[in-house]
Amino acid sequence: MVTNPLTKNIDMSRPPLDLNAYEAASGYQSLHKIAAGLSSDDVLQQVKDSGLKGRGGAGFPTGLKWSFVPRGEGSPKQKYLVVNADEMEPGTFKDRLLMEGDPHLLIEGMIVAAYAIGASVAYIFLRGEYVVAERALRKAIAEAKEKGYLGRDILGTGFDLEIILHTSAGRYICGEETALLNALEGKRANPRAKPPFPQVSGLWGKPTIVNNVETLCNLPGIIGYGNEWYHSLTKGKDHGTKLFGVSGKVKNPGCWELPLGTPIRELLEVRAGGMQDGVQLRGFLPGGGSTDFMLPEHLDLNLDYEEIGSVGSRLATGTMIILDDKTCPVGMVGNLMTFFSHESCGFCTPCRDGLPWVDQIFKDLEAGKGKESDLQVLLDHVDYMGPGKTFCALAPGATAPLGSGLKYFEDDFRRHISEGKCPYGN
Amino acid sequence: MAKIIVDGVEYEVDSDNNLLQECLSHGLDLPYFCWHPCMGSVGACRQCAVKQYKDADDEKGMLVMSCMTPATDGAIISIKDQQAVQMRERVIESLMTNHPHDCPVCEEGGECHLQDMTLMSGHNYRRYDKKKRTHRNQYLGPFISHEMNRCIACYRCVRYYDDYAGGTDLAAMASHNHVYFGRHQEGTLESEFSGNLVEVCPTGVFTDKVFSQRYSRKWDLQAAPSVCTGCAVGCNTTPGERYGELRRVVNRYNSEVNGYFLCDRGRFGFGYVNSAERLKVPVRQGDGQQEELDANEAHQLVQRLDGKIIGIGSPRASNESNFALRNLVGDDNFYAGVSAKQHAANQLILELHRDAAFHVPSVREIESCDAVLVLGEDVTNVAPRIALALRQSVRNKAKELAESANIPQWQDAAVRELAQEDRSPLAIFSNYASRLDDVASDTVVAGNQKLVKLGSAIAAELAGESASAGLDEAERELIGRVAQQLSSARRPLIVAGSSARSMELIKVGANIARALGKRSGNVIDFALLLPEVNSLGLSLLVQKDKDLSAALGVMESGAAKHCIVLENDLYRRAATSEVDAAIAGVDSLIVIDQLATPTSAKADIVLPATAFSEHEATYVNYEGRAQLSYQVHRNHSAARPAWRWLCENPAQQVEELVDRCAESVSAFKGIASLLPDLNSMIAGMRVPRQSHRYSGRTAMKAHVNVHEPKQAVDSDSVMSFSMEGIPASKDATVLGASWAPGWNSNQSISKFQDEINGKLKQEHCGELLLKDKQASGDFFNVTADQSDANNGLEVLPAYQIFGSDELSAHAPAIRERMTDAYLSLSPQDAEQLGLKHGQGAGIAGTDYVAIVCIREKIQPGTVAVYCGTEINPHDLPERIVLNANADIAERGIRGLIVSDLLEESY
């Protein structure tokens, strides 16, 4: 049986499989099951039972999310599926691999999801810089249309689906699902108030599911091979495989598909080949720029949503950024603060006006102009921009590396102030 | 009734509201920026954080934004909780990182919501020592100044301007802390309601440019409750005066009329009051000579006129002035100072007002109507505030959808996102494309004949008769659709009025409303628009047959020896030749007015009258609502309220005159209730016009006399020209500028409302005069006028918010927005006549030249004529012939804002 359903067709040394080759590699099985009579309720139930959690970062159960979409008689006729392919989390490049390497997998996943929720139009909101993925997806969509896998009355099921590929003009906030919907509607990419959730009132005010690329890529396997197989993949409590990435001063940075529950040490030392010679591991952000730092002592934890959560961080996108002992942690966090403050949409006060202040303090620290009182301001901002205080998760995300950085690397912050310069020579 | 507990105290609440609104309704102080009482919540500023507890045992609680949290029964919250207090303080600290330290030179200072909230939050020490971000400001036209550095990005401006008022040229741009609120490029803000930005902005980003030019602090302004005289809606205003000059007009909340918003004519149209051209002394004139008269002598002269005198009243003069003139000349000799056609329309409207089948809705009621048909009215340019209300009426669909989706109405962004372009029906049948077309479900632009035909078909359809005669397929569909929308609405509304100068259209409107009423058994909302502030009041004072033609006839025949014209320019009301002939027929013409007019130029005696802000008076708005407007400041010239020239007692008190009017004219019997009873006030104390912080009282006249002048005594009114008296916070019966402890800005109004958006605690919303209904009438028999279509173009009157009103057209700021007279033509007619956009065209048979304005939607065969200040519309025949004429007037039509211009510029 397949153990790497997400990447089994990916070989970056050649172009991605075209539709025929993809089908030959047992692709579009799920679509044929639907054509053979699998109902949308069955699909929904199967996805619920699979235990699949969203791979975009929040880890919300996918089937549960789908179940909030009004179904049946009296529900709004038009519903939408939107693929969040605006992969902009710092350090994250997993969706790119999937879209560049096996675009038909995403399209098959979209067909399954759209069928389950009753959407006749699906949008792919693609990060604008992903031009290779764009080309691959356009080709794959055209092939699927040609083959009758997209369009009207797909394989005689009476189910219609049109896929529209939209390339983003580019803002990190578009990764926030409701800001993404606003951007798709041609409005400012500000997040929307929740409730109402997009499942009830989303794109153009209609019920909408926004799923991450990787989440959808799990669906062909779940429907094609069944939950028993799916549940056999994991090594831990959460189901399935996941793409994990490592960037930073490791010997072999990259992105791999591993079962959930794989030990962090295996990812770092086996897949990424361990640290480069001459540098030591100082800490790491386990799931992109908006997760809390973890320390070398956490290496024996498993890559599992709950386990990572137990030490105050999040698995999130599963793509880790490594901090080594020759790199200034203040500089690293400052770099992220520059990013987050620049990417704030400007809607709510703590994020819009809090992050630039934080960013400016980091710039002062690095320039040797930091003051003792700045540390208190930073600590205050960790609280002030935290969860529940802002309109969306952007600023709370930024406080993750900020707060944990201040906690774990306090000495480095203090040395910047007492020495009047960056001790790492930045 | 739901109950919530705030800091241990139980309050009764409406669970359909959010916590912030309920806290404010109960008088609690809780700072906020992005929430607005009539625009709801979006959760942007994070200023209104409170602690919410799950239950009585929950000691930890959770911070929530009170504006985004429903006031559910049993909710337990704390405003005083330390974490909540700290959060609110930090938000201010954040906002202040970029806000400049320019309060002393900022126009908003002293009435700045940001100042108030900063103090309320407790933030006072600035830790931020980095650079502030700066912006470039934009030129936004003659009304509004822009200072983006002060912006705290609450998003209220764009939410108001775009979402609420339908503007398209103000937007939030850029992102993070560079977010910029402005136009895509510099230029005049196009919305007719742009002035409200001044009040919507919680700080000094958008300020009143007219006010800035002659600036004074709020606390230094002498102010009183007033009523706008710009049109027949009767919005409530607070004008402010300093050094004898009227400095600005701001909105005064009236829950039934204007709520929180004014139009730009109302806000910026007061400038004529300060005009150097104001008439200041009584004069006798003739043969090119002018002789100043002593005021008492002039008064005696009017009182001792011998022989038959006729009086011509005015729709822009108060009830009291018209009533005084009527008394002086006698009921039989008192004429309406409006054209015969307008007078007939007014009388018809009055008749419909009294018809039990109809209800003329208030502005607030209009907002709640869920299907609207506008017949022949350019609402934006004739009754602007109602256009803003109609724009809200189309949102009833959104409210309905939100209700079924369980989204609270106050979740503003969510409700808009849910409804998207789904709107309640608004069908606009008009002579030319209107500024509401963007939210209309159907628009028909045509001449009156066609509008009458289509309207009649709707009435027939609703009455269950055959409606298809003479209609094509598309028209039949349209008729069916509109009829269906109106008949299936919960609260349908028909809007008609006198502006299209078609009695038939008003009758058709009545027929439609009557047919609707007969179907549903309900009284139908029928908004009947009139042109001027006191059109209806004047109509109530004049006999039915006493129109201006009759007056001019009497004058021309020599039957009247004297004629007194009250605040009126007859050359705007009747054909030039008729007025000339009439004036030649009387021995003496006496004109009482604020400014010189072509009529006053021909007068033998000219008496200066005070302007709206210089006297106390009542006016009756389009719905029959009589409202009292107080005197704000004194006029130091010899000008008097017109009634003081006309009444025998030169010191005639207005309140006594109001009482007399109520006694002698039955329609006015309720009007005396508008007058507050001085005796009921604390120890007979008066209400001060000057604020408790009014400064410079002892010194402001020091350049004239170093001794403090005696405070002027106002014997007329319950108000005084001083700082002393009953503080508004003790008794807000007479509320000019609202002010409450800790609340210096206009947001303090919440402290005077019985609940947010409710009535003011002790204030009078005005008195509806036409409450006594008569039995409902019958359908009108309407026949479309079948004039010869081959002879020239059918003239349709066009209006401009800036220019069509006589007095505001003298305000400098308004003049900057005015265009010259123009002729709106269809592209076909223009081509056929060889006329180009922007070119001058002569009107055959007259000396008038106007500018050609080619508009895509004008019906061929018609021409919508905007007469500006240069054409007397009564000189034009019903159909006109145009010929090319190279003379282009000075202003041209630059800056003209209509939706269907064929060419943007010329």
Secondary structure elements and their pairing?
The complex is a heterodimer of chains A (426) and B (906).
Chain A: H1 19-24, H2 29-35, H3 40-50, H4 62-67, E1 80-85, H5 94-101, H6 103-117, E2 121-126, H7 131-147, E3 162-167, H8 177-184, E4 208-212, H9 213-217, H10 219-225, H11 227-233, E5 241-247, E6 254-259, H12 264-271, E7 281-285, H13 305-309, E8 319-324, H14 329-343, H15 349-366, H16 372-384, H17 394-408, H18 410-419
Parallel strand pairs in A: 1-2, 1-4, 2-3, 5-8
Antiparallel strand pairs in A: 5-6, 7-8
Chain B: E1 2-6, E2 9-13, H1 19-25, E3 49-53, E4 62-65, E5 76-78, H2 82-95, H3 113-121, E6 144-146, H4 156-164, E7 171-173, E8 180-182, H5 196-200, E9 206-208, H6 209-213, E10 222-223, E11 226-227, E12 236-242, E13 245-251, H7 264-268, E14 283-286, E15 289-292, H8 295-303, E16 309-312, H9 319-329, E17 334-335, H10 340-353, E18 358-359, H11 363-367, E19 371-375, H12 379-382, H13 384-393, H14 396-404, H15 412-419, E20 426-430, E21 442-445, H16 448-462, H17 473-488, E22 492-497, H18 503-520, E23 524-529, H19 535-541, H20 548-557, E24 562-566, H21 576-584, E25 588-593, H22 598-601, E26 605-608, E27 617-620, E28 625-629, H23 642-646, H24 654-664, E29 687-688, E30 719-720, E31 767-768, E32 793-798, H25 812-817, E33 822-825, H26 827-833, E34 840-843, E35 849-854, E36 862-866, E37 879-880, E38 882-884
Parallel strand pairs in B: 1-5, 16-17, 16-24, 18-23, 19-20, 19-22, 20-21, 22-23, 24-25, 25-26, 29-30, 32-36, 33-35
Antiparallel strand pairs in B: 1-2, 3-4, 3-5, 6-9, 7-8, 10-12, 11-12, 12-13, 14-15, 14-26, 27-28, 28-31, 32-37, 33-36, 34-35, 34-38
Helix pairs in contact in B: 9-24, 10-19, 14-15, 16-17, 16-18, 20-21
